[in-house]
Amino acid sequence: MAFPVRDTSNISIEDGNATVRGWIQEIRNLGGISFIIIRDRFGTLQVTAPKKKVDPELFERLTTLPRESVVSIGGEVKGSNQTDLGLELIPSELAVHAIADSPLPLGVVDKVNVEFDTRLNNRPMDLRKPETRAVFSLKSLLCDLVAEAMREHGFVNVHTPKMVASGAEGGATLFPVDYFGRKAYLAQSPQLYKQMLMSTGMDRVWEMAPAFRAEHSNTVRHVSEFISFDGEMAWIDDQRDIMAVMEDVMQYVIKGIIERGAEHLEVLDKEVQLPKTPYPTLTYSECVSLLSEKGMEIAEGDDLGTEGEKLIGDIMAEKGHDMYWIVEYPTAEKPFYIMEKEGTPYSHSFDLDYRGQEISSGGQREHRYEVLVSRLEEKGLDPESFTPYLEAFRYGMPPHGGWGIGLERLLVKMLDLGNIREAILFPRDMHRLSP
Ligand code: ATP
Ligand code: MG
Q1: Which atom in ligand 1 lies closest to the alpha carbon of residue 228?
Q2: What is the DSSP string of 53-117?
Q3: Fewest beta carbons less than 10 Å away: which of 33, 176, 190, 228?
Q4: Using one digit for the tens of pLDDT, what is the confidence trace for 356-386?
């Protein structure tokens, strides 16, 4: 782990005097001299306190502080070839803002490996680690890049309700909410609302917002609250128009992470590769055959499954592709709003997979009112409960389609973090509701 190069603009230096504010990371008392490492958001600075040159009372207070206490230290800045920063501070003033209790629940710089659960149970302390925070600096950059790319493509940023009367992705993963005595749910996705907007002339929209899924699976890629990056666009010929926009957006954001996130990637000791374009396309049926050749039998119509997705990822990696499309899933596997491929059991759907894992699903939607109503009925859903949604289709809905990308899944794959919870400040899952 390397600490970032410190931004010295954060230290106010006047006439060689400076004040730094931060946490006491480490104190080394060597008898005649003490070294105090102080840390702030930018990195660390060494405070050097020679016993003979520093006021005895200040020396005593400073060198006996517990680790992680919060202080302001003023003093003289000197050049030093002993520190990474090339600077050190000789203290002449000390204000103690908070004394940290001990022992610490978690070391900030200790090299010992702690359980991930211990880290999550003490997340604010865990976030004092530069490498933990670097992930969230990159997540913030990722959001900026998404906004830039979507603006470039003429999309309007929208906000749809997160308390809803019906779900779109199936009943099993809905979180019920008591809504003034009526039954409501936390939104699984903005699906129904972003589609309704396609009837308005606001014909390219995007949203980045929490999505809630009562997932009963305990995996490294499922949580009950994640950030969904959704796009929806009208006037498409078919799903390939959507895929072209997505490919542009993905390349833009990954390139941006590589170029503008370099200092955080360095803290994490990670290198991000820009995927090869164009992203190759496999059909669902081709995947079933490819898996069969590798000895994995999947009945036509069944889900490829986690292991199937991984194996396809290995096959694509051999050909040098990190990012690829899997298109034309069986209609029976897809939600009611996906358009059928006329006269076939397949659909105008796609998944975007990144190194063996789905990061996005999307497709062309069914925009014809009568067909949509019969699709609902075929899926055993009651069209009555979708009335507000269906109304938007009754009076003129253009052809349209879109996608939902799990923001954390994208980040985890890009940075090879292993567990989606690494990319969420305070993750929510079956077993975790706090902190
Ligand atoms: P999977 O099959 O991997 O569980 P899904 O097909 O159920 O995902 P979709 O309904 O297609 O998920 O949601 C669109 C995207 O949202 C997914 O590709 C994924 O990136 C993200 N996503 C879905 N569910 C979760 C979850 N529980 N936790 C984190 N991200 C999720
Ligand atoms: Mg999906």
Answers
A1: 16
A2: TS-HHHHHHHHTPPTT-EEEEEEEEEE-SSSTTSEEEEEEEEEEEEPPPSS-SS-SS------HH
A3: 176
A4: 999 999 999 999 999 999 999 999 999 998 9
Model confidence over 321-359: pLDDT tens digits?
A: 999 999 999 999 999 999 999 999 999 999 999 999 999
Q: Could you tell me the residue ranges of all domains in the chain?
A: 11-98, 125-423
Residue nearest to atom 29 of ligand 1 (CA): 222
Are 185 and 167 spatial neighbours (Cβ–Cβ below 8 Å)?
A: yes
For the CA of 215, the closest atom of ligand 1 is 27
Distance between Cα 358 and ligand 2 center (Å): 7
Nearest-CA residue for atom 27 of ligand 1: 222
Fold assignment, 11-98: OB fold (Dihydrolipoamide Acetyltransferase, E2P) (2.40.50)
List residues, by chain if needed, whose CB lies under 5 Å from ion ligand 2: 361
What is the four-CA torsion angle of 316, 317, 322, 323, rounded to 10 degrees? 0
Residue 128 among the catalytic residues: no
* Residue 407, both tokens: 């923001």
Annotated catalytic residue, options 199, 347, 361, 375: 361
- 125-423, superfamily in CATH? Bira Bifunctional Protein; Domain 2 (3.30.930.10)
Q: Whose CA is nearest to atom 12 of ligand 1?
A: 361
Q: Which pTM does this prediction carry?
A: 0.94
Residue 366 — φ and ψ, nearest 5°? Answer: -80, 115
Instruction: Give yes or no: 409 in active site.
Output: yes
